[in-house]
Amino acid sequence: MASSTTSATAFKDLTIDNITPNTIHISSRGFSPRLTFIMSRIVTHLHDLARETRLNTEEWMAGIGFLTEVGKMCTDSRQEFILLSDVLGLSLLVDAIAHPRPPPATEGSVLGPFHTHNRPPLAPGDALSHDSDGTPCLVLCSIQDPDRNPISDVEIDIWETDSTGHYDVQYEEARTDGRGVMRSDSEGQFWFKGIVPVSYPIPNDGPVGKLLGMLGRHPWRPAHMHFWMRKEGWDGLVTALYISSDPYIISDAVFGVKSSLCISPTPASTSLAQKYSIEEGSPVIEYDFVLVRDEEARELKLQKNREAMERLGSRKWRLEGAEGLPIMDVD
Length: 331
Known about the structure:
Elements: H1 19-26, H2 33-53, H3 57-73, H4 80-87, H5 90-98, E1 136-144, E2 155-159, E3 179-183, E4 189-195, E5 200-201, H6 207-214, E6 220-221, E7 224-230, E8 237-243, E9 262-263, E10 266-267, H7 270-276, E11 283-290, H8 294-312, E12 317-320, E13 325-328
Parallel strand pairs: 1-11, 8-9
Antiparallel strand pairs: 1-4, 2-3, 2-7, 5-6, 7-8, 10-11, 12-13
């Protein structure tokens, strides 16, 4: 069991210059080498931030107050901390680190704060959205491996806003619409009927919205539709498809857009309209998703982790576990 006391260190009179190594030393007696490593880096960067910016007491208190308000805004249906992570670019960064994908694998995007596990099962061709004010849209997709072989029985979470730019969980009255879960068929295909996505502002009535205003940033996201794909043995994919003509496509408030994920709906041909029982000329979104196996993603992640630690330059770390995460090397 770890002792609640600590042995004397070389640091007796703590100063601006020696508080950082002392804090790291005192915090290095836990049970988790991974936590020790993460905390050592957090302390290093937080202390450097304070020193570099000459942070004063009023600013420190304002920061604590801001984080307190972020916590108060969180509910079962709204995660303000995820929103904060999104607007700081951290969500996309973490996904890119945790899920490096070799070409031609589909790139990831942000999960966002409005995914829920309360989603109805959908059969092929079912309606994702029942919003009569939205523009009906047929979505035809496939899931393949890098060699273009179909991947069947992939679980696919799908969610989008209504025509006003609101997710179902943003309404006070309980409702479930604009979301569902389905599986790819034996040919790796799945299709459903939704509405053409619309751009919308992220929730800006809380502390994150206030922060954006103070930074002179807008809160808008370009029109998009979310997907989360999972199957045992394959690297999970959280991504989204973005309407390329949207005015916010190059200034997404949460940095989720990637050029490979931008699409343009096309008008349904006569044959397509007849096959899927939709109006000729109505919008159609088509996209081929590509997944990679867990093993391939893990090998790439190990390589990227090793390269990152070598750039860090410290010899007090090593990679451990199946994911090859860096930890403090205390041997």
